[in-house]
Write a structure and sequence with these properties.
two-stranded antiparallel ribbon, 10 helices
Length: 263
């Protein structure tokens, strides 16, 4: 195809997309209009299925298939990172050195650690009732776990977050979402159909399959963030200096130098 033909094809595609955008824009309600058909329908569907948080109802019920795609993107990113940053035969791992942490940092980080973990789990468990959900709560829980790295050092973090179990939990969270979707297909004839009992409105067991999908996403996101940070911290090569005390930011991998047998 010649350059001129490619440009004409590109112009045709751009004009087509622009026409669709203009057509969609003209169909939008006026700014500030109190009535919005899609919003009203989403709220009605959420309340009909006993889900107090309409955003979670949209994510894990009305558009649960889209959420599965988003979760799968994160899972694929973690899988790719693990494969690309795996330790090869010509690399060896050097244990990190003890770190010097200022007492004020240690004190407040250790106090915030359990609070952050509980907050993350609460956000996941109550995603169908209040703002938040599996994505938000999973990130908060993973962040809370890494406060131990800030409060103590990398060696302490390694003791409570071995990568193997978190990699398994990441896969289990991804698989659990698919299992719930298949259960909906078998029970109602539609993949990810909300076929479970809806329960009592505004209770933790309400929403049918929404809490289960929310929990699966929370497990997958929290584990994925932990594994991603573990991969990157294991590759850390920078050593920062505090007064007379070297600190390694993570365990160091390096290729053997010429003449080094790598043992």
């Amino acid at each position: 195809m010649s350059r001129a033909a490619r440009l004409r094809l590109l112009a045709l595609g751009v004009l087509g997309v622009a026409a669709l955008l203009v057509w969609a824009y003209t169909g939008l309600p006026h700014f500030g209009q109190p009535h919005h058909p899609y919003g009203d329908r989403a709220v009605h569907a959420a309340l009909a299925r006993r889900t107090a948080n309409v955003v979670s109802a949209v994510n894990f019920d009305q558009r649960a298939f889209d959420t599965m795609g988003e979760e799968s993107i994160l899972f694929g990113a973690v899988l790719g990172t693990v494969v690309l940053l795996r330790q090869t035969r010509d690399e060896r791992e050097a244990p990190p050195r003890p770190a010097l942490v200022r007492p004020v940092v240690r004190r407040y980080a250790l106090r915030l650690l359990p609070v952050t973990l509980v907050a993350g789990l609460y956000i996941v468990a109550h995603g169908q009732l209040s703002p938040g959900g599996g994505f938000q709560g999973g990130v908060v829980a993973a962040t809370g776990l890494h406060l131990l790295y800030i409060a103590v050092d990398y060696r302490a973090l390694e003791k409570i977050r071995p990568r193997g179990p978190y990699e398994l939990a990441d896969a289990v969270g991804e698989g659990a979402y698919l299992v719930v979707g298949l259960a909906g297909f078998l029970a109602a004839g539609s993949f990810l159909a909300n076929a479970l009992p809806y329960g009592t409105f505004n209770s933790i067991a309400s929403g049918g399959s929404v809490p289960l999908l929310n929990a699966a996403v929370g497990m997958e996101v929290a584990s994925a963030v932990v594994v991603l940070l573990a991969c990157f911290l294991d590759q850390a090569m920078e050593i920062t200096q505090w007064p007379d005390v070297p600190r390694a930011t993570g365990s160091v991998r390096r290729a053997p130098a010429p003449g080094d047998d790598g043992k």
